[in-house]
């Protein structure tokens, strides 16, 4: 009987849409698109709420606003730097917002170097150099934008990141998921040890048991 109010509360809370834990920033128009897809699936499988713009934005929704909202709800952002990341202004704008949130609201940012050398990103050589040469030409009248992108790239590459090297993608994805779990475990208090939450509970409920405070915070709004 004493359990009844508790269960009611759980049912009530489970209907609240969960916050995203992770925001994935990536370029869809190169091989990192399928990598990001696999990473996304692996994170979801591990019970980690993840935002990916091609899944999380409704048709016709303002992208800038939707991305801003998703970032505001995320604890960790992962930036998948791939060959063509810098040729997309959407990606670069996302990166600027991520770095802003990192400074102002403590968002954790983890760069992932997928088939690119971190030095190439940092020094803007090869594809990154070509991309920026094009942006400089195209945004001659809006120099501040290119400057902002350059600064965001510089800041991102100064952070501790993860490099694919010659690992298999599968192995790399496992490493990334582990790292995210570790970060989330260390930033979120837990009330229940893993064993006490039955694995047949829906992910929402399990997550709630692990991360009650993220829901509590959301309920306050
Ligand atoms: C989306 O929202 C931003 C910020 O409010 C605004 O600057 C931009 O013009 C909007 N974009 C579109 C396509 O409506
Ligand atoms: C996200 O948070 C920032 C800073 O707190 C705020 O200025 C912005 O309006 C928020 N964006 C959305 C879409 O909620
Ligand atoms: C994080 O916590 C979950 C749930 O308690 C546990 O299953 C997982 O092994 C932990 N992961 C790491 C990397 O510490």
Automatic annotation (TrEMBL):
GO biological process: signal transduction
Record's signal peptide: 1-21
InterPro entries: TIR_dom (IPR000157), Toll_tir_struct_dom_sf (IPR035897)
PROSITE patterns attached to this UniProt entry: TIR
Coiled-coil portions: none
Pfam families: TIR
Domain TIR: 18-184
Keywords for this protein: NAD, Signal
Domain of life: Eukaryota
Name of the protein this chain belongs to: TIR domain-containing protein
UniProt organism field: Dovyalis caffra
